[in-house]
DNA sequence: GGTTGACCATCAGTGATCCTTAGGCTCGGT
DNA sequence: ACCGAGCCTAAGGATCACTGATGGTCAACC
């Protein structure tokens, strides 16, 4: 019998055009995806990809299978929804750890969504940085689900008893003071930003390490005028003309007057947002919640984003294996 | 993620009303079914059954899940069909072992079915008794798929590398010479058949053993007038007035004049028809073939059958674990 | 033309999964 | 009161599925 996980992976592979990319999205290694697709071909007796050393091309059969598979998967969704609705649901309590930007700009949208009310989940929210919320997940801890982000391969570690699920990406943008007189739609090269003053993360934080590496790879050695881990503060300082800052799109939902937001192709970086959850809490309701979350985040950033698919810079583009022990 | 096998099991359980019965159908033990349903409840976070010591009652949620699940499963069916159709299918050869009644009365119907032509399977057929076709399945043998039957727990053994799949039941009926003057719709008790002459299987065959046990459990000690393992011969002899016989419904598709077919509640026995197939041959096309087979058999016997669900007599109702080593 | 980097396949190892077996429990039937 | 049908759980073993390492191929770039 076919495996639904294989079908989901198939969808992601054909959408992204590569095993490795799909693996990154789904929280697998590329090897796992390769094996899953091989298994799917074996189970169905259909050749799904023409493989070459550098890429895979879905066959005609794969594309028709994709169409059916997405129908099957949405049917399973509605099955879960219908089943959990038809039971006199005992209002599961969910203790959620969440980092500030998500709590500020996404969570309220979720709570307003009619889909939310049908879930019958009673939320307990704890807003904190990922490193802290992960602590709360340790077995017997005070959390069931933690929404965390990771920039690049930064040393975020979690127990491998947790299930990781990709929620979305939150791209960093370059924010300049409007007073510098640079147009919003200007085509900017990294080199042109070389001598500007920058507002940076506190040195030593894992984000700072990744950003420094990114800057170094562009031969950019910024002059630092401020250290701030709080994006609201960074934004306001930028608006006041202090310096440039790298701010994730989510935080730009509240955009003070006096700033210009640029898209600098050389400086592409994203916070990868994940849900970590205790295995025993992985019920259908929680599953539906994380999907609602992913949809909301996608819908939210889609309105802001230029349109091109979010790619991480080269240094962080490796597939992301599950637990850094 | 939900498991499709669990959904299929759920369907069977609600259809039959019992874990044990579903286990028998699906080729599992009752324990396996219990664990599968527990897993399904865990995965979906929905209580599916009210359990008591002697039975399970599906909840409301289970019933709605059943409705969705059957849709999902048929969607998967069409997915497989569509995918294998859209490929330029290289006409898989299937070497099929099949026992006589099935080859006589069911296989022709399949070959005439439009669904058959779409499968793109090239058949090689070998008609023989189960004990022989199973030999042909031994690894490196000359068969890919064997359709076999088993009466009760009779000592049919197959290598456990084979996949077993339940195809359907073929109920035995009591056949009497019309010359005995008994009406077709007569309500018959086993005791009334006690002193009649019977046409029986050759002693020593596994079928004979089961039938003797069944008769013994009804306190029936038949006088044997003929030994025959060939149902056509038995039928013709019965038509000629020689004696009563126990004949499976399939063989009754060719019903000679001069016989009366009875339904005797005490003497309920069925040949359980299974497909055994080499694991590596379990492609989607073969899967679809066995399903076509099951449908054809079901449709065929449904026209004959009285309507009540086919139950095996008590001595043979145990769940059937997979490999008798 | 060699080097580098991206990507896929394969293999060995390991942890998780899933089934069988065995045993225990609770009911209804005799 | 006993037996048996049917459910559950625990333990053990086979199989599955993922990770991590290795190797191969191709494109791009000096």
Tell me what the structure shows.
By secondary structure, chain A is an alpha/beta fold. Chain A has 2 domains: 4-84, Orthogonal Bundle (Arc Repressor Mutant, subunit A), CATH 1.10.10.10; 90-325, D-Maltodextrin-Binding Protein, domain 2 (3-Layer(aba) Sandwich), CATH 3.40.190. Helices cover 40% and strands 22% of the residues of chain A. Chain A has 11 helices and 11 strands. Chain A has helices spanning 4-16, 19-26, 30-44, 60-86, 100-105, 107-112, 114-119, 130-137, 206-217, 231-239, 284-304, and strands spanning 49-51, 56-58, 92-98, 121-127, 145-151, 162-177, 197-200, 223-227, 244-248, 259-262, 270-278. In chain A, strands 3, 4, 5, 6, 7, 8, 9, 10 and 11 form a 9-stranded mixed sheet that branches. In chain A, helix 9 links the parallel strand 7 (197-200) and strand 8. In chain A, helix 1 crosses helix 4. The radius of gyration of chain A is 21 Å and the shape is globular. Mean pLDDT of chain A is 81; it is low at 303-325. Chain A binds a DNA duplex (30 and 30 nucleotides) through residues 18-20, 28-32, 34-36, 38-39, 51-56, 314, 317, 321-322.
Major sheet of chain A: 9 strands, mixed
Distance between the termini of chain A: 34 Å
Q: Please give the share of residues in helix of chain A.
A: 40-55%
Question: Strand portion of chain A, in percent?
Answer: 15-25%
The number of helical segments of chain A is 11
């Amino acid at each position: 019998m076919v495996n639904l996980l294989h079908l989901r992976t198939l969808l992601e592979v054909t959408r992204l055009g590569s095993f490795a990319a799909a693996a990154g999205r789904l929280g697998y290694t590329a090897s796992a995806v390769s094996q899953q697709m091989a298994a799917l071909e074996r189970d169905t007796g259909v050749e799904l990809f023409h493989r070459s050393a550098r890429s895979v091309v879905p066959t005609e059969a794969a594309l028709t299978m994709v169409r059916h598979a997405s129908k099957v998967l949405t049917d399973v969704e509605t099955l879960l929804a219908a089943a959990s609705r038809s039971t006199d649901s005992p209002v599961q309590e969910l203790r959620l750890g969440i980092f500030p930007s998500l709590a500020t700009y996404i969570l309220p949208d979720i709570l307003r969504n009619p889909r939310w009310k049908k879930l019958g989940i009673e939320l307990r929210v704890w807003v904190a940085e990922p490193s802290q919320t992960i602590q709360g997940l340790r077995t017997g801890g005070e959390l069931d689900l933690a929404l965390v982000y990771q920039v690049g391969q930064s040393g975020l570690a979690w127990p491998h008893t947790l299930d990781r699920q990709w929620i979305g990406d939150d791209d960093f943008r370059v924010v300049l003071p409007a007073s510098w007189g640079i147009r919003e739609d200007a085509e900017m090269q990294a080199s042109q930003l070389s001598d500007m003053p920058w507002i940076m993360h506190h040195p030593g934080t894992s984000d700072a390490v990744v950003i420094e590496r990114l800057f170094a790879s562009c031969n950019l050695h910024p002059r630092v005028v401020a250290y701030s881990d709080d994006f609201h503060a960074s934004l306001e300082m930028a608006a006041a003309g202090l310096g440039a800052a790298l701010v994730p799109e989510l935080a730009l939902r509240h955009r003070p007057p006096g700033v210009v937001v640029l898209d600098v192709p050389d400086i592409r970086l994203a916070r990868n947002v994940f849900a970590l959850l205790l295995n025993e809490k992985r019920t259908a309701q929680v599953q539906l919640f994380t999907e609602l979350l992913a949809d909301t985040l996608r819908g939210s950033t889609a309105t802001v984003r230029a349109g091109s698919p979010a790619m991480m810079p080269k240094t962080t583009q490796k597939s992301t294996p599950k637990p850094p022990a």
